[in-house]
Amino acid sequence: MLNPVDSPVPGRLTGVLFIDGAFRPGKGAAVPVVNPATGQEVGTIPATEVDELNEAVDAARRAFTSWSRLNARKRADALHRLGDAIARDADAMARIMTAEQGKPLNEARGEILKLADACHFYAEEATRVHGEVVPNDQNGYQSLVLREPIGVVGAITPWNYPAELVGWKLCASLAAGCTIIIKPAELTPFTALAIAEKTLEAGIPAGVVNVVTGKGSKVGQAMVEHPGVDKIAFTGSSAVGLHIQQSCPQVKRLSLELGGNCPMIVTQSADLALAVKGAARRGFRNAGQICIAVNRIYVARPLYEDFVRELGATADRLTVANGLETPDADLGAMASGEPLGKTQDHIRDALAKGARLVAGGAAPEGEAYRDGFFFRPTVVADCTHDMKVMTEETFGPLVGVMPFDTLDEAVALANDTPYGLASYLYARDMVDIQAVSSGLDYGNVAINNVDAGIMNAPYGGRKQSGIGYEHGREGLLEYFNFKHVRLFHGVGV
After folding, report:
1. Neighbour-count burial for 233-252, b at 16+ CB within 10 Å, e otherwise
2. What's phi and psi for 113, nearest 5 deg?
3. Which Pfam families match (predicted)?
4. Does this model's pTM top 0.90?
5. What residue segments make up the domains of the chain, in order of their start?
6. Contacts of 406 (CB under 8 A, 6+ apart)
7. Which of 104, 202, 271, 449 is placed for a possible disulfide with 82 were both Cys, Cβ 3.0 to 4.6 Å?
8. Residues known to be catalytic
9. Cβ atoms 285, 318 nearer than 8 A
10. Are the beta carbons of 181 and 57 closer than 8 angstroms?
11. 57-61, 139-143, 406-410: least confidently modelled range
């Protein structure tokens, strides 16, 4: 097992990199990793130096030659073994995640198990990569369309879901026959290193998976600029995604899953209780630190006051606690002071411009919360699009609510954003459902539920929310090049 009883992070994963199938001490300066619930250091990571990144790229390129030629069934078997190894150690890996990220232990364990599911899903997809035979306009010719792995993938992953958002890239890469270098967020590196340890258990060959650590602005940017990295798969802010796109010195394949600022529309025909439950879950789960969080809610005026009252009461009932000490808490600590500060700024801005505080608005009281980044789930009502909460992605436990009078108005307000990742609709009238869902300019629309992304369907955004797809068969195809082979065989000439 990874985790000794007296520590949430195993000592062997502190201060190390994972390159060419082995853990090794990093040469760079030590970067502290802090438990956001307590403020206490749980370990350090090394800032990867240029020569170490070069070694990781070289290892991945060497491994690509054999891994890409391994038949799909054997790659699938390796992914199944990886999924099994992760599931067996879910409890210990969850403790690592909670210690560095802050989410409640039960929620962290659920994320680890979803990572295991991703391994099994892409293991099955690996064996279903089919080419095509394309008809020609001349007799005697045949065109074959083949799919071949891109090469070495550089995966730059965020801190909010440190297992799943590594897994989507890792599993699709390996299923396609690519090799990968993972650069996890400096706030949550140990989950990625624990995944690397599981690849050893699964017998995945040296160099196929590598993990380097350090700040994204340095180590991540070095991967973007490295000529030996063929594709960048990034999840994070729209600003950083745009910088990556603009700063590639060579032409590279990119998958960018970026910001959200996701709306929810509640029409007059909605099931009010169901809508309130969905808003609370998707607004406050993981303390709102998720790209598909409900950020802003538009409610039909006849339901507006009832909805606001019930959502506020639901928010007030949610529990906030240290996720290691209270595994089933609704919210743990926020991951750092940065998203907490942004949440507080958005609340101040909304209240100064006339919003009404319905629930939350402050940190929970008590000694247990003194040293951590805790905040109560917060609802502000009577909002307008002059407020940051309605026009910027908060990435914290805050939702803004405002009324609407017509469906056209609701759709226009929902679309009034540079983002287009996910949106939500609660309605029982089929006319409402058809009119609103067809008008929403988003890559994902969830109706009467808040699970906008599922593993076997494509997940991606529009506008400034990114390019490319994860999940599903489409997520796997992001890791292939297409090759057209045109053959003259002379038959039928």
Report:
1. bbbbbbebbeebeeeeeeeb
2. -70, -30
3. Aldedh
4. yes
5. 16-258+466-482, 262-447
6. none
7. 202
8. 257, 291
9. no
10. yes
11. 139-143
> Which architecture characterizes domain 16-258+466-482 according to CATH?
3-Layer(aba) Sandwich (3.40)
Q: CB within 8 A of 409, min separation 6: which ones?
A: none
**At 7, is the pLDDT very low, low, confident or very high (cuts 50, 70, 90)?**
low
Residue 457 DSSP SS3: coil
Angle between helices 407-415 and 430-439 (to 10 degrees): 30
> What's the pLDDT tens digit per position in 329-349?
999 999 999 999 999 999 999
Phi, psi of 331, rounded to the nearest 5 degrees: -130, 140
For 132-178, the pLDDT digits (tens) are 999 898 999 999 999 999 999 999 999 999 999 999 999 999 999 99
Both tokens of residue 465?
């929310």
Residue located via tokens 């992953």:
157
* The token pair that represents 146 in the structure block: 């083949």
Confidence check: pLDDT of 5 > 80 = no
Element (H or E) spanning 228, and its range? none
Average pLDDT, the chain: 96
Integer Cα distance of 486 and 145 in angstroms? 9
On whether the CB atoms of residues 91 and 109 are closer than 8 A, the answer is: yes
The per-residue pLDDT for 491 is: 84
CA distance 269 to 393: 28
The verdict on domain 262-447 having CATH code 2.60.40.1640 is no
- Residues 256-274 have a mean pLDDT of 97
Alpha-carbon span 280 to 318, nearest angstrom: 9
- In angstroms, what CA-CA distances link 150 with 18, 72, 168, 332? 22, 15, 16, 39
Token pair, residue 408, equals 């056209």
